[in-house]
Design a protein that fits this description.
Layout: E1 5-9, H1 17-28, E2 38-42, H2 48-51, E3 58-62, H3 79-85, E4 89-92, H4 95-98, H5 104-117, E5 120-125, H6 136-147, H7 153-156, E6 160-163, H8 180-198, E7 206-210, H9 218-224, E8 229-231, H10 239-252
Parallel strand pairs: 1-2, 1-8, 2-3, 3-4, 4-5, 5-6, 6-7, 7-8
Helix pairs in contact: 1-10, 6-8, 8-9, 9-10
The chain binds 2-phosphoglycolic acid (PGA).
């Protein structure tokens, strides 16, 4: 099995840069034996500068970015600024942002701008609920097509697609667990759409899973979910849990 990627999404945590440094360092000091697994941490943007040089083994990602390089967009941070600040990845279209009004049209602009800036976009897609008539497949298809519209075949392989069923995320009230079989079914579907749209250039794209991924189910998802990695949110806020997930990924890739 090939190299995996584990991406921690800290969301709007922790409260201070001191705590951020402590959490980051606690992960960094326990991954010296990790050789094959790519590790990314996406902290709040404010902490990027403080964390970026703390470990050569951990890449930094942002949790959103805006289009354009500079300009009259109060409150926004551009992909180019993030790149210059030391970020290599950026999460785009996360369901928690979509619930605040983020549209696939905007995500599409952000994906293209991130690629232009040299960042690797982690494009989040996923249905809010599963219905008996399988309408959720069309939801995911529409999100993929809208968010990747106009992305060139040359750069498509850089994009990471994160499948995250919203009903499985820790922040969803009444959430329930997704299974590796749910994940596999969807990753096969996603690969088919990508292949129809981008041809063989999509073959190298990575698809990962997010949605309460944790140290208990990581092995099952990585072995049986048809994925190239995981994006834990909640579990990435406890150093020992995040390190366990990284070690599981390292072993699965052996
Ligand atoms: P979770 O978050 O692991 O806490 O469900 C994942 C995400 O939504 O990024």
């Amino acid at each position: 099995m090939s190299k995996k990627i584990i991406i921690g999404n800290w969301k709007m945590n922790p409260l201070t840069s001191k705590e951020a440094e402590k959490l980051f360092s606690a992960v960094a000091k326990n991954i010296s034996n990790i050789r094959k697994t790519e590790i990314v941490i996406c902290p709040p943007v404010l902490y990027i500068d403080r964390l970026k040089n703390l470990s050569k083994k951990i890449n930094i990602g942002a949790q959103d970015s805006f289009w354009g390089e500079t300009g009259a967009f109060t409150g926004e941070v551009s992909a180019h600024m993030l790149y210059n600040a030391g970020a290599k990845y950026v999460i785009l279209g996360h369901s928690e942002r979509r619930s605040l009004g983020e549209t696939s049209t905007n995500v599409n602009k952000k994906v293209k701008e991130s690629l232009a800036a040299g960042l690797i976009p982690i494009l989040c897609i996923g249905e809010n609920a599963r219905d008996e008539s399988h309408g959720y497949f069309s939801v995911v298809k529409a999100q993929l097509e809208e968010c990747l519209s106009g992305v060139s075949k040359n750069s498509i392989s850089k994009v990471i697609v994160m499948y995250e069923p919203v009903w499985a995320i820790s922040s969803t009230v009444g959430r329930r667990d997704a299974t590796s079989a749910d994940c596999l079914e969807m990753t096969i579907f996603i690969r088919k759409i990508l292949s129809d749209k981008f041809g063989s250039d999509s073959g190298r794209m990575r698809i990962i899973y997010g949605g309460s991924a944790n140290e208990k189910d990581a092995e099952d998802f990585l072995k049986n979910g048809g994925i190239d990695g995981l994006l834990p949110g909640c579990a990435s806020l406890t150093a020992s849990k995040f390190v366990d997930i990284i070690k599981i990924a390292e072993n699965v890739a052996k």
